[in-house]
Amino acid sequence: MRPLYRTALALGMLAGCRPAASERVKAPPSAVVDTTPTTNAEELRAFAKLYGYVRFFHPTDAAAQADWDRLAIEGARRVTEASDRAELSEALNELFKPVAPTIALYPEGTPVPSGGAPGQGPLVAWQHRGFGFGRMHSIYDSVRTERTHEIPDGFAGGWAPVVNAVDAAPLRGKRVRLRARVRVQSKSRIDAAGLWLRIDRPDNERGAFDNMNDRPIRTSDWTFYEIELPVAEDAVKVAFGGILKGSGPASFDDFSLVVVQGETTTPVEIDNPSFEAAEEPTGWSARKPGYVFDVRQEGDGKILRISRAMRTQTEALFDARPARGEVLDRALGAGLRVRLPVALPDSSAARPSVGAAPKASDPLPGAEDPAVRIAAVIVGWNVLQHFYPYFDVIDEDWDEVLDATLEDVLDDEGPGDLRDTLERMVARLHDGHGRVAGPLPPSGRIPASLIRIGEQIVVARAKPESGLQRGDRVLSIDGTPIEQRVAEVATRTSGSPQWIEHRVLGRARVSEGPAQSEARVEIERGGATQTVEIVREVGFPAKPFEHPPLERRPDGVFYVDLDRASWPEIQARLDEIATAPGVVFDLRGYPNSNDQILAHLITEADHAKWMFVPLYIYPDQQRQVGWQEEGWGIVPAQPHIEGKVAFITGGGAVSYAESVMGLVEGYQLGEIVGSATAGANGNVNPFEVPGGFTITYTGMKVTRLDGRTHHGIGVEPTVPAQPTREGITAGRDELLEVALKIVRGGQESGDEAKGGKKTGRNRGLPGAPSIHHR
Fold first, then answer.
1. Banded pLDDT at 352 (limits 50, 70, 90)
2. Most buried of 119, 149, 432, 706, CB within 10 angstroms?
3. Do the strands 719-720 and 671-674 form a parallel or antiparallel pair, or are they unpaired?
4. Which residues are 701's β-sheet partners?
5. Is there a contact between 140 and 132 (Cβ–Cβ < 8 Å)?
6. Buried b (16+ CB within 10 A) or exposed e, 599-626
7. pLDDT tens-digit series, residues 457-499
8. Higher pLDDT, 748 or 76
């Protein structure tokens, strides 16, 4: 025996304690007892593979009700106590037989066990529309046939805020503290709540922000929580409130906002802080489709309760399902295989487990525990193995990623190491939506956006008091050559090359370190080198260029920044925009809920299907049974924009922005100036792993309108353009200059410039093969 751990954790999966040796489920007798020694890595790999098969595809009631996070943690401990294959088989049977009594483990090379799941009656089997156990179910859902289940009523996005705000003018240069009572009454560890506080700056620029993402609220007891932030000197609004992540319910009461000056606090008046004004949350914005906001009496006062609107359903998600008696046979590693029924007669599926399941709200150990760190990898790898829809596009061996990540996590020493390990695993998805967030203090970055120009990395824009200037060439940070830092951070950043550079350089992730710590940045300016010391700040640096959100130029040409201009602002000037000789739309960021502009550019109804939710009934994404096809269905609207149109975009345009740009590309609604977009589109699907970390990934497949691959490629420009160091230094937005020249008729279109035939705008393409929110 060579146990990896000396401490023991209660099994808790079923009976709340680990069974005594005499009560453990023994491996079935075999003609061959394999005493081949096993390593920790082999044991964990076999456990990981079996964990995913049983959790997501074995349809017993016991498996559906099990505490899978706790089982993952206990399994990480238990299987590493084995010394050989026979002991490993015994450990796996001990862990899984209570929830999956009809599976059979057997050694490679021995006769396949006979037997299946006898019995009559309706068949119980899993159906997955994407991964239905994350925060985004309604788009994504996982249910068992012949079982009643609760599902969200309508699409909601997985979170719901309550919002209030005050004028920032009298608070500028001061610190404010938000305080409120909160509780979460949920049966799921996925659900959480938080307070949030945001300092808004001019032109929709976000200042300091905190939503407690690193310290989610899950306690069922009323508890006071606080957030404190500085108010920028140019702040225009202080916005605040509470947020539910998941289904809830979460309750909020007794909000207060104060100015903090040393030990002294001064109250800031806010509307209806304790929800006593009426039966509705008067003074607050409390609306989100798919959620219920309920002011209710509790004790001597009132509270606000937020919960997901739910409904019960017994219907299957789709028609496909496994056949009666269908059994899968899979290799687990370490010389073991498993036979796993994926469809069971109702009487077999309902077979009870031994003991009673614990409450999912029972606390689990944190990521300081080695078993929790291993469990986080096993859970995260399995969700992606069975439900990530782009393995046919990316060039990765996901089984090899499991081996590498298990080896990686065995060396970890705490939550910070686990985050880095999970980030390296998620980076292998090459998914721009791939992120890892967890219970760690927010990191800081230098307040400067960087950009690669040729072989140099230069400052695109910096906070004036930082000591950096536009055009400074960055040579090193904290003594490490800049390219070395870029390469290291890139291994923990998921996405296409252009999205990685945007996150690592444009958002200054290359400079990450503890918030308020000092970074030593070595630069070259005017041929001389110098070192600038800069305090790292929480948040993203400002975009490289500032323009009015919506502006009519002296020659009548319009500039519209879709990242900042709201739809009401655009709509108020639509008549002018429609008759302008040219319009430049800037979409180098994320649309400000203004995709309605597309209806004023197309001339024929949009029927394209380009978003696909995968449908699964088998593991390992084998024999996938279909797709749920979606599109936006845009209908032309008046007034139609008649002038020449150009869109500016690049690697910082991701997701929603790419939905807009994909339609621009597909229907040829204007020239596309700049560089390729991020190549990551489709609704995300966050899920939690043990240790309190959340992994986010793209849960559906999105293509270009003509069916070509979008993932990792993005929407490509018709007029490629890049800034120069000289232009950056001078503060010139060279991409805007190119776009303006096009709409003014001073430059050939991309097709003409390439010697091809000019394509007509608004030419509809036939519908092509996934779902993205707007």
1. low
2. 432
3. parallel
4. 612
5. yes
6. bbbbeeebebbbbbbbbbbbbbbeeebe
7. 999 999 999 999 999 999 999 999 999 999 999 999 999 999 9
8. 76
